[in-house]
From TrEMBL:
Keyword set includes DNA damage: no
Segments forming domain FecR protein: 86-170
Family matches, as Pfam families: FecR
Keyword field: Membrane, Transmembrane, Transmembrane helix
Protein name: FecR family protein
Amino acid sequence: MKNTDKHIDRLLSGYEVPATKSRREAWEQLNRKISANEKLPKRQPVRRINFAYYLTGAAAAAVILVLVLFNFFRPKEEFSNKQMAIQETILPDSSQVVLKTNSKIEYHERLIDGARLVNLDGEAFFSVTKGKKFQVDFPGGNLHVLGTKFNIRAYSEDMGRVDCFEGSVKLKINQQDIVLTKGQAVSFSPDHIEGPFEIKADNLTGITDNLYHWSDRPLQEILSLICAREGYQLSASESILEKRFTGSLNLTNGKQALTILTKAMNLDYNLTKNQLKIVESN
């Protein structure tokens, strides 16, 4: 304790102490001030905000948003055919489309990656120029290619078919991935996929007009196509729909095609107010 007092005396020896206070009182007052200062909150370091960083990020986000909105609201080009005659169309990417009757497509190019996107209702033949991904969405599935020739028949999800005449196409139907190469086709319905099966690739000449070729195909496929083209409602027994047909038909005149088909299959048909009924011939 004596050593401490001596130390305090040395520290305070250089200070002038008011006459009214002893050195001991001055030291205690100083000690109280030091303790009070130690209890004050420490000054926090100031965080500097990098406004340039945030402005750059905001600008990038704004650009992306503009691109997305521009792409989303970018007008689609529409093509439709209500006539029995085929309609040939050249898309902006120079791809050729042959639209069949009661068919329509919507086309646009995605700005972000240049993908060419098509929505199809009905039937169309495509001769696609090489380039970015070319995707077609249709009732029951979709496909994408880079450059090839193919035909899609999909008036509804109830019955459809895809034929590949050149190159290859990759389809997704009923959550299944299918690859078709030249000379292959696949038919589909909501609960069934048939194929791939072989076709004659040289039938390409006929597919671009109204001449159709079938080889051992169920009658339901042919009748469903005629009804979709003509706007008929089909009524037939399962035994009739399961019959197999091989041959060619020109579908420009639906009634004429029905007459030829039913006679070849030993059947009769009755058409009343767009209601088509197929029965066994007596």
